[in-house]
Structure to design on (288 residues):
């Protein structure tokens, strides 16, 4: 999908007044199930190549994918990596593979940039792939990132891993902390909500979604079997995360980002469980 030409100053002002934000290019509706752009975080298939991750995403029944930095490109080119340092040839190859499988890449992360030069490279890579968003935990670089968000019109989502008992400086596990960081920033900067990691940290997933109302850019969706301790991922609806409640709340909030299934179990053969997770969305859609 090609971006429209840059609007006139008058049109730009009108758009801002009407929407309250300058929106990044939307994710096409034809990639969605039940109103959500549900797909896979390629890390689900981290024991395979990026090409295989695309194939497995399609096999599971999804039409969108979120790449992560450093995955091997293909069996034929194991030395080539898919990240923001990729050559034009590698970018062209992954685009061709996506087209072949009928899958659209919409997000990239979790990625870190050491300085402005690297972050500019990340945004340029995102623009080449026509991404909706980039996911990071570089919260110490938000001034720089915000400048690039405005320049490139690409969203940035702050991801959360679990609380680190030995590192009190790691605070993004807490959705209230993330909200405080982004609430006065450009609306294209928000959260990549990871309900599974919230559960490990003792945060009820639905409560986390509610806390971040209006600032959720993307979701790394997981269903877990307990709150307050590390448990394994299970197919959506089989755990205690209240996936339906989270979807209802996201819909109520007008969420327009991507939901990536990041299934951290059965690493060698997770497609059946991932397909079951996609099936949950089909069931959700039919119940609406």
């Amino acid at each position: 999908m090609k971006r429209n030409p840059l609007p006139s100053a008058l049109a730009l002002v009108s758009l801002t007044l009407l929407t309250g934000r300058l929106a990044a290019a939307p994710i096409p509706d034809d990639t969605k199930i039940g109103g959500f752009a549900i797909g896979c975080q390629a890390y689900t298939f981290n024991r395979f190549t990026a090409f295989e991750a695309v194939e497995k995403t399609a096999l599971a029944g999804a039409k969108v994918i979120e790449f992560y930095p450093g995955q091997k490109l293909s069996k034929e080119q194991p030395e080539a990596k898919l990240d923001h340092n990729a050559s034009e040839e590698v970018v062209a190859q992954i685009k061709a593979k996506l087209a072949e499988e009928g899958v659209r890449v919409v997000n990239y992360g979790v990625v870190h940039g050491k300085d402005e030069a690297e972050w500019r490279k990340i945004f340029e890579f995102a623009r080449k792939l026509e991404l909706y968003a980039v996911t990071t935990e570089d919260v110490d670089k938000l001034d720089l990132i915000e400048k690039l968000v405005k320049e490139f019109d690409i969203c940035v989502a702050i991801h959360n891993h679990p609380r680190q008992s030995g590192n009190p400086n790691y605070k993004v596990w807490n959705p209230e902390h993330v909200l405080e960081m982004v609430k006065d920033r450009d609306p294209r900067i928000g959260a990549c909500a990871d309900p599974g990691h919230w559960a490990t940290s003792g945060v009820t997933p639905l409560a986390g979604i509610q806390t971040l109302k209006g600032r959720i850019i993307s979701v790394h969706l997981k269903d877990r079997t307990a709150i307050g301790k590390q448990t394994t991922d299970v197919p959506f609806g089989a755990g205690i995360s209240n996936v339906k409640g989270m979807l209802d709340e996201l819909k109520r909030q007008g969420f327009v980002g991507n939901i990536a299934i990041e299934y951290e179990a059965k690493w060698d053969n997770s497609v059946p469980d991932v397909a079951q997770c996609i099936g949950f969305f089909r069931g959700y859609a039919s119940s609406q």
Notes: The longest strand covers residues 216-221. Residues 33-287 form a domain with the TIM Barrel fold (CATH 3.20.20.150).
